[in-house]
Amino acid sequence: xxxxLICLALGLGLLTGGGAALAQxxxxxxxxxxxxxxxxxxxxxxxAAEAAATxxxxxxxxxxxxxxxxxxxxMTIPGLALFYGGLVRSKNMxxxxxxxxxxxxxxxxxxxxxxxSVAFTSGSPFIGGLDKLFLKGITxxxxxxxxxxxxxxxxxxxxxxxxxxAAITCALIVGAFAERIKFSAVLLFVxxxxxxxxxxxxxxxxxxxxxxxxxxxxxxxxxxAGAGWLWAKGALDFAGGTVVHINxxxxxxxxxxxxxxxxxxxxESMTPHSLTLTMVGASLLWVGWFGFNAGSxxxxxxxxxxxxxxxxxxxxxxxxxxxxxxxxxxxxxSMLGAASGAVAGLVAITxxxxxxxxxxxxxxGLLSGLICLWGVGGLKRLLGADxxxxxxxxxxxxxxxxxxxxxxxxxxxxxxxxxxxxxxxxCGDAADFPGIAAxxxxxAQAVLTTVVWTAVVAFVAYKIVDLVIGLRVTEEEERxxxxxxxxxxxxxxx
Length: 494
Prior knowledge:
There is one protein chain. This protein has 18 helices and four strands. By secondary structure, the chain is mainly α.
């Protein structure tokens, strides 16, 4: 643990020593401080007009985003923690809860230190800059753009909302190597992977200057040139199919290979110790996911309502599809299957929720339920990895399915919302949609980029951690259980 703390301190020192997606640097407080002491009547008509034209946050949008942010925190702690905790053996329950809880705490701090700046400021097409280290220059009056011209939210609200996305993405990974990894190794890996995988992918997919920067073809070209690489290609990812789920799913699969299989895997019973807690966790995930998906619209309007409805029906459809497939294959539908199907549907609808119609959402849900059922069964056997809690089978596979199907069902001809043309300031015009085949190819490029990027970064990060402090606990500690061996406590007293 001492070595980990030294490495963490050195890493932070290097990062802070150097030097909006939607955040607009030009958006300053409406009133200049120097004018505050002058009587209101003394303001010139020109100044008054300029102040009136400067967008200010709507209290309803701000309240909506605050609630959405709280819901995403609920998804992580306690939602994801309990979902994962119920799936492991009782001797490892607290270790999983601890990993999710502390990873969230760690990422919230790193997000403010350098994460937000690296992800959501201009730099290159692949990574942002260090202009907003420690949120430098961001005040309660700073604003961030949404997806509508002239509509903004407080930038601090956007910072907090995106921090919750970063935290849950990093926490998702631990399910792949649960029950056999050192606690210090988890934390050091998360710092490396967050810095070199999550932040670049978030920048590539979500960073641009916002709609107010686009007024004509020339300004659109300028915004595109300064945007993230995949955003500039036209990749659609409403709430994180690539950034969150494929990113975490692939990193988890790599971890399952590098860390190795649990002792007794395939020979001893490793059934979940509490499906009751898993069901509670899955339910909290579903509730919190409404903030995740609807909140990604950044405004309380009809598109947020669409994302909400799509999240509702896609999840329900995936649950039904999973248990139906289970009943056909095994003769019985299980609670674990229902919970897993719900999560699969939530994952798959994430990139699509603001771009597709409800019918498209139901189809995405049905397909993701069946394909992810295969992902945790047939595909898992083919891969031969001990992905303890099926992070890749659900999040990786579900994210890929959702990202590709977004390209299909976003088409206005299939009830989707199409794309927004900010030069004409119209959304959903069929003439602006590139076509299903073309959009699916763009989506495939985003999927492939994410898979390759995160796989390489994760492999290197695991190897660095293994060299510095080692990845696995000893065989004796693993058999005893990580609750006692890593944390000196137990989840249950008998």
